[in-house]
Amino acid sequence: MPFGQLVLGSPGSGKSTYCDGMHQFMGAIGRQCSVVNLDPANDHTNYPCALDIRDLVTLEEIMYDDRLGPNGGILYALEELENNMEWLEKGLKELGEDYILFDCPGQVELYTHHNSLRNIFYRLQKLGFRLVAVHLSDCFCLTQPSLYISNILLALRAMLQMDLPHVNILTKIDRIADYDPLPFNLDYYAEVQDLRYLMPSLEAETPAIRSGKFSKLNEAIAGLVENFGLVSFEVLAVENKKSMMHILRIIDRAGGYAFGSTEGANDTVWQVAMRNETSLMDVKDIQERWIDNKAEYDELERKEEEEQEKLREEQARAAAEADGLPPLGPASSSGIRVERKKK
Ligand SMILES: Nc1nc2c(ncn2[C@@H]2O[C@H](COP(=O)(O)OP(=O)(O)OP(=O)(O)O)[C@@H](O)[C@H]2O)c(=O)[nH]1
What we know:
Layout (H helix, E strand, L loop, with lengths): L2 E7 L5 H14 L5 E4 L11 E4 L6 H7 L4 H14 L1 H11 L3 E5 L5 H4 L3 H11 L3 E9 L6 H18 L3 E6 L14 H5 L8 H7 L6 H17 L5 E2 L5 H15 L13 H12 L5 H7 L1 H29 L21
Parallel strand pairs: 1-4, 1-5, 2-3, 2-4, 5-6, 6-7
The site of guanosine-5'-triphosphate has 19 residues, from α1.
């Protein structure tokens, strides 16, 4: 049974970098996976692209042929894909891969109200794919209450529209310590606790429109988010292996990968749950990890990785000697290194 992640998020939230990092991380843990590019505007991918929507349709062609702008062009391209699902189905079949990362376009209309993306994945579900929507938001949004609340609304809308197991992630969390100090602990934002505490800073942000109506609107939005009670965020620094491991565990649970590809196969659900429970205890307090003691943790993890690297090299050398082979060069690093794009 194939599994997949739909990587969603507004432009620049880190979707392609995530796909690249997750692809490398899965390679390092021995899980075969492929990345499929579904963004018709993405003409350069850092990851090895197993299947590319641009082989079916490109944004430039659509904009030229149909005289559309970039936003309309992307929506039209996804409608094209929806009408040519055989192309995607055939491509996925030929790949024969058990795990696929789908790098989606950044146009938010595609996962707030336009139906093509939803219909495409609905078709894949019918083919047996077990999918998880992974919705990314740049943690920069925490620096302004209005941005943070907009991102919550966006995440909520995407959850309702995509109607799939869903994991929301605040990306680039390694940068959060570089921004101005936040008025609340990082957990407050990640757990989406009572938004009413943010109201004074929200109103201070826009003094020109402060009014009774504005306050009521904000309270109504806070009430709406609270009533749904669906949104919370995980945090991620894509080059940090522990952070990637934590995210993948959560996604595996959300999509059922953690329970094996067929019910009753291998370990029981309880065995898997027990195993994950102990590993989840390793998760640190995010405020402490990414803000209060970030430098100390970075240094600690760097040393840990160096030691693991040395150990791997020694083991590889010992294994080669035992087999009577010539000594090996340095073992290949399983660290995630992603290419940085200049924006
Ligand atoms: N520091 C840091 N930078 C990151 C991280 N993830 C992504 N970035 C950077 O964020 C920028 C945008 O990342 P992309 O992966 O291009 O974002 P995208 O969502 O694919 O963007 P579009 O293709 O425009 O929709 C790049 O410069 C990345 O290097 C992270 O975890 N930490």
